[in-house]
Amino acid sequence: MNTIFNPDQLLKLKQRITGLSSSSKRKWGTMTVDEMLVHCKTQLQLALGEIPSAPQGSALMRTVLVKWISFSALPWPKGSMTPNEMNKDRNSFQLKDIETEKRELISYLDKVIIATGLFPHPFFGSLSRKEWGQLIYKHIDHHLQQFNR
């Protein structure tokens, strides 16, 4: 499984983020590039406990089987559910210029890498460091693919 805790995989993810531009065209969904960057950064802020969250979704989401399926190599369906705090339609994301958003997302990746403890996920509940690393990689990868990166 890919993870942000693998230095080579993290570097490639950062390079893909850096390669985004305001002219990057999305293949699906409604988010703009800058909204997507804030959406991904918000996941990292949740992991770090900077944004509080309460459990959401079905208790089934917190089972070992659903976590295993969600973190596996199987691609996520386009338009999958997202925690309320990360949902652009439920929040007024404060958008900056795209270069700032890219730098901030990369900065938050670095913060998660050195964090000694991570907070529960709104859908999946308590996650190990390994699970968080896989989930974050898969989530950001999903959205980079959305914008052909």
Q: What about the largest sheet?
A: none
Q: Which class of secondary structure composition applies to the elements?
A: mainly alpha
Q: Assess the beta-strand content as a share of residues.
A: under 5%
How many structural units, i.e. domains? Answer: 1
Please report the number of helical segments: 5
Q: What series of H and E elements makes up the topology?
A: HHHHH
Can you describe what's shown?
47% of the residues lie in helices and 0% in strands. It has one domain. It is built from 5 helices and no strands. α1 runs parallel beside α5 (129-146) and α2 packs parallel to α4 (98-114). The chain has helices spanning 7-18, 33-47, 64-71, 98-114, 129-146. The model has no long low-confidence stretch (mean pLDDT 91). It is an all-alpha fold and 149 residues long. It is globular.
Topology of this structure?
Blueprint: H1 7-18, H2 33-47, H3 64-71, H4 98-114, H5 129-146
What's the short version?
With 149 residues, the chain is mostly helical. The chain has five helices and no strands. The protein has helices at 7-18, 33-47, 64-71, 98-114, 129-146.
